[in-house]
Amino acid sequence: MNLKQLEKNTAAVMFQTGLVEIGIGLSEVVTSLAMIFDDISYYIDIFLVVPIIFLILAIRYIVIPRMGIVKLARKRMRRNTWFIVTVTVFLVIMVILTITGKDHSNAVPVNGRLIITGIIFFICTTIAYFLNFKRMYLYAFLFAGAFNLTEEIRKNPGIISDGAYVYLIMSFLLITIGCIYLIRFLKKYPLPEKISYDKEN
Amino acid sequence: MIKKTNSENQQVEIDKLIHEPARLKIIAQLYVVESADFLFLMRQTGLSQGNVSGHLSKLEDAAYVEIKKGYIGKRPQTIISLTKKGRESFKNYIKNMRELFDDLDE
Q1: Which of A56, A108, B35, B68 could form a disulfide with A112 if both were Cys (CB 3.0 to 4.6 A apart)?
Q2: pLDDT tens digits, residue range B47-99?
Q3: By the 8 A CB rule, do A130 and A83 touch?
Q4: Which residues in A lie closer than 8 A to residue B75 (C-beta atoms)?
Q5: Which is nearest to A19 in space by CA: A139, A177, A187, A189?
Q6: Min CA distance, B7 vs chain A (Å)?
Q7: How buried is B23 (Cβ within 10 angstroms: 0-12 exposed, 13-18 middle, 19+ buried)?
Q8: How far B75 CA sits from the closest chain A CA (Å)?
Q9: How far apart are alpha carbons B22 and B19 in whole angstroms?
């Protein structure tokens, strides 16, 4: 019995639901649509609350009734908080890059591209390692690839109308992966009948 | 308690309450978290409701776990956590088991 691995697996229980992928995918859908429909982007950006509301409701009504509730050890909570902050900063950077990148003449130069790719890899692999979210290693390649492809497309306008479609395709891919994991989770953990601790048993 | 001797012929006490496989799973799971509800414990240990209830009763009687019952809306909720005595006992159990196998040739 490996207690360290048990603790890591317990902390990573949430990732088997696929909700993280769906949440990130939905956020990317909104930001991509905001890039594509430039003129009404500010109105579309408001819909960034949708993934957040979706996650809260999904955890409350889908995950908790099937999985139960756990309060992680304080050390793990502090680490998780740090990484939630990291993910939030990462998402904000990606949103800013997406929004400010709407002007096609402002493709990021190669050196800047390498730096941003490095940042993407660093954040994703750090999250994957410390949160035991192994799929994030794969998503590091996906996010970095999508970013570089978008920048490449911007250098050659007219081939594909807008690099935002790359993010849209990536987001649908993530949502699909998330849905597959969610369906697996729902099959593995059906809604239990009344569960309670009965001391007399 | 089960008493065994290590290589130096010292008696090593193994806590039989923890040593039972199902209870060991339950206590190990509770050891790595601050608290968990009954359903989570069931899911993570793979034990049935009756099984978990039975073992928790024994652990509660020995004051190894603390059990708090409440409600979330209309749904009953039972939160379980290891007591200080439970954590110390588990640490001692791990230490004693390690001592027991330390000198074993592979």
Answers
A1: A108
A2: 999 999 999 999 999 999 999 988 877 778 899 999 999 999 999 999 888 88
A3: yes
A4: 65
A5: A177
A6: 23
A7: buried
A8: 8
A9: 9
**Mean pLDDT in chain B?**
86
Q: What integer is the mean pLDDT of A54-68?
A: 91
The whole-angstrom separation of Cα A51 and Cα A54 is 5
How many angstroms from the chain centroid is the CA of residue B67? 13
CA A80 vs CA A75, A76, A122, A129: distances in Å: 9, 6, 17, 12
pTM value? Answer: 0.77
Cβ contacts from A onto B, under 8 A: 75
Strands B11-14 and B33-37: what pairing? unpaired
Q: What is the mean pLDDT of residues B14-33?
A: 92
Locate the DSSP E strands across A11-166.
70-72
Residue with tokens 């998780």: A80
Best of B20, B40, B74 to disrupt the A interface by mutation (most A CBs within 10 Å)? Answer: B40
What is the reported pLDDT for B84?
94
In B41-74, DSSP assigns E strands to: 65-72
Mean pLDDT confidence for A152-163 = 61
Q: Are A108 and A116 in contact (CB under 8 A)?
A: yes
